[in-house]
Amino acid sequence: MNTPAKKPATLPAYFQRRMNMESLLASRRVLRLVYEQGPLTQAEAARALELSQGACNLHFQRLEYEGLVHGERLQPEGRGRPRFRWELSRAQNATIGLVFDPPHLFVQLEDFAGQKALALETNLKMCRNHTDVAEKVSASVARAVAVAQERGLVVREVYAALPGVLDPLTGAVRRAVNFPALDGLDVQDLLRTKFQLSAHANSLGVAYYYGEAAEIPAHQTALVIYWDLGLGLVFGRNRQILTVQGGDARGRMLSELGHISIAADGPRCHCGQHGCLEAYAGGWVLLQRLAKFGVQTLEDLAQLAVTGKPGVDATIQEITRLLGRNLACALQMFGVTVVRVTGPLAPVFARGQAAFVAGLAEIIGAERAASLYVAVSNDVSDRLLRGATRAARHAYVYPDEFARLARVSSTLQGQHLAAG
Ligand SMILES: [Zn+2]
Question: Is the pTM of this model over 0.90?
Fold first, then answer.
């Protein structure tokens, strides 16, 4: 059913009295249920949430008024009350994903059914500072908002995937190593003040994770490795990113695993420490080690890897094996059963996949290593963009979960995370 969501002009007076119209929070549980398990009837919702049918009905009406769900009448009205089956209004609601992959900015508009409505690419090369970047962002978002309006889509949330070190509270870029023009860019604030849009700014890793999440069976714990200049690691389960709570109010995303020291006297990492896993296996290390083959960019590296050139191949085997050995402990700890590898260096990993499993086997045994499902992602950039719009959708339905995600690794920042 595809009824366009229209706001009724007025709501019954009893409804206004019984519901706080200022906040969607109370209806959020019902929205989540429809998002996860819909379509469903009011009776089914009432059972699942242990609420009365009357209360559920109120929430559904509220959500319908907001254009988030619509009801399908199940049987002709007899003497009793009509029964409805409620469904998420997927074709009427949308999110925007922003991916900053310097010097490119990708902007994508997608509805809740996953239909792409717009994809834009902007070059940020000429931008000197964050004000210039903000102008480009505004122009692209304005275009996306216009397309949404033309198509009758309500933009619920924006997710901005950013590289570098972000402010833990605001998500503003503190230091983007390879593209200083981003430094100081506060996307959340920009979108809120200029477009009245709710936005989340966080790492590229979140978008990479959601780009893969649809492929990961529910109830399986997955490690998503995104291999670019650095080495990103995200653990997730049931489309939710796992965090370590520790003593901080905000959960760490475990992405700092790449900056855990594996050898005290190891090479210096760009984070300032010695012997980080990333200082052995980050894309920047591979670029240095393979420079003699004329490799300058990650794209060069990916192309060279598939040729199987002997000197190159040996380096790839060595590094992927080291990755396997050093991630084995974390895989065991979180009960990981699925490993998905993405990012521009995914083709390089494909070349070394067997060595990765062999490295794992050195620690956890061949049988357990072989029982892991390891897959290398294809269509990496398309998945990243979809991942950003999906992250935004997820952030809209589960705002608390997103608010808990840390924005920066404490090791990278060189100090403890600011308390929530
Ligand atoms: Zn490091």
Answer: no
